[in-house]
Structure formats: C-alpha cells, structure tokens
Design goal:
Elements lengths: L5 E5 L26 H10 L5 E5 L9 E7 L4 H25 L11
Antiparallel strand pairs: 1-3, 2-3
Helix pairs in contact: 1-2
C-alpha cells in the first residue's frame, strides 16, 4: 500500500551513467557512477532520514536491477535529493578509501 507520508528516491536518480531523459534527477556534478542500494542507505542514515530500502526495478528501466529508499517527507523534495546526492558521493569516497587501504569502516566514536 502506498505511503503518502514518505518520499521515494530511486537509485537511478543518482546514476551518472544515465541521461536526464533516462531517469537521472541530479546534475552530473552531483551524480555517482552506478550507485548501490547499500550506499544509498548509508547516505540516508548519515542524514538521519530513517530510510526503508526496497530492491526493485525502476519502471522506466525494466531490464536493470535497481532499488529505492523511502524516507519521511520533509519538503522540498528536490533539496533533499541534492543533499542525498552529496552524501552519496561522500559515502562512495569513504568506501573507496577503506578498500584501498584494506581497512574496515568504523561505526560510532573512536575510543582512545
């Protein structure tokens, strides 16, 4: 059942490999190449949006696996979309740094 109190953010909205006419909703400068649902989830969590994730296929791209995050509404949607895109880029950078150095992500404060 549709929840009218939540926004839906498809992975395709943030994919730099797509044209605007194919579903991308953010500028190329804010887009991420082939974003993953886990990265979208982490970006939403870092913005305290309490995402609900759903693997699915975007209606306009039936052959490609995709997914979306559902977050509580807080207007305007486009401003939230841009914040998520920026945070998604940050999450991708953190993940790449950890993979390059062979370290794991740390959650929470670091105890010294």
């Amino acid at each position: 059942m549709k929840d009218y109190g939540r926004y839906i953010f498809w992975l395709d909205y943030f994919d730099s490999e797509l044209k605007r006419s194919e579903g991308r909703r953010v500028p190329l400068s804010a887009a991420t190449r082939a974003p993953a649902l886990a990265e979208l989830s982490e970006a939403c969590r870092r913005l305290n949006l309490q995402p609900q994730l759903q693997p699915a296929r975007h209606p306009s791209r039936p052959g490609k696996e995709s997914g979306y995050a559902s977050v509580p509404k807080s207007p305007p949607k486009h401003a939230l979309l841009l914040k998520i895109a920026k945070e998604l880029s940050t999450v991708r950078g953190i993940n790449q740094r950890h993979q390059a150095h062979g370290t794991k992500k740390q959650r929470g404060p670091v105890k010294v």
